[in-house]
C-alpha cells in the first residue's frame, strides 16, 4: 500500500518547503529558457545582424566554428521569418496535386487550397480543401469539394453549394429559372471559408481563455486571474461553439447563443426558477467581454446587499 506523501516524509515542513522551492526554481528555469529563445530569435531577425555576421566572416574576425554556427543559425531564422511572413500575408495558398487513382476524373488533376490560421500567437496545423471536376469533359470547368481536413463545425457543404454549385440538379434548376448555367466563384468561396474558420477559432480561443481565467480547466489555480469562485462551469454545448452553458457558484444557470462573430444574440439566466433579467442585460455584448461582464455583475451582486444593510443602520 502506498503511503501518503505527508506520512512518508513525516510531515517535515522543511522538506515540504524545499520541494516547493525546487518546483518554483524549475518553473523559473523554464520561463528563462523561453525568454532566452525569444531574445535570440529577435536579435537574429534583424537584418543588421546578418550583415554584421557576413562582414565579420569576410574579415576573419571570429573563429571559423563560431562563424559557421552563427551564420547558419541566422540564415535559418531568416528563412523561418520569411515563411511566417508569407503565411501571414497570403493566408490562402492554391496548388495542384495528382490523384494516384488511374480511373480518377480529369486524369487525376486536383486543385488544393491551404488555409493558414494562427491562434494565441502561433500558427496551427493548416487546413486543406481539395477540389476536383465532378465529371469528365473538355468544356467542363466546374469544381466540387473532393476531400478536406476541416472540423465538422465549419459549414463547408453550405458554402460549396452557395459559391461552387456543381451538381447536375442545381445546374438544371438554375438553367430553368434564369436560362443560364450557375457561375462558380472560387475566390468568394475561399474568402467565406477562411472567414468561417477564423471566427470558429476565435470563439474556441475565447472560451478556452475564459475557462483558464475562472480556474475551470483543471490547471494550477495560479493561472486563474479571478480569485473568487464565481463560476462552476463555462463550456460550449455544441461543436460550432454557438451555445454556451454557464453555472454560477450561487446556483444560477444560464445559456448564451452567439452568432458567427461571437456576439451574444440570446441570453437566458435562471435563478430559483425565475428569469434573472438583470444578469441577462449585464451579459449582452461580445463574448470577448464576457469575463469582465461576469466579474462586474458578481461584484454588483455582493455589494448591493451590503449597501442596503448599511442604509438601515
TrEMBL record:
GO terms for cellular component: Mis6-Sim4 complex; nucleus. This is Putative cenp-o kinetochore centromere component. The keyword NAD does not apply. InterPro entries: CENP-O. It is found in: Chromosome, Centromere; Nucleus. Keywords: Centromere, Chromosome, Nucleus. The keyword Transcription regulation does not apply. It holds the Pfam family CENP-O. Belongs to the CENP-O/MCM21 family.
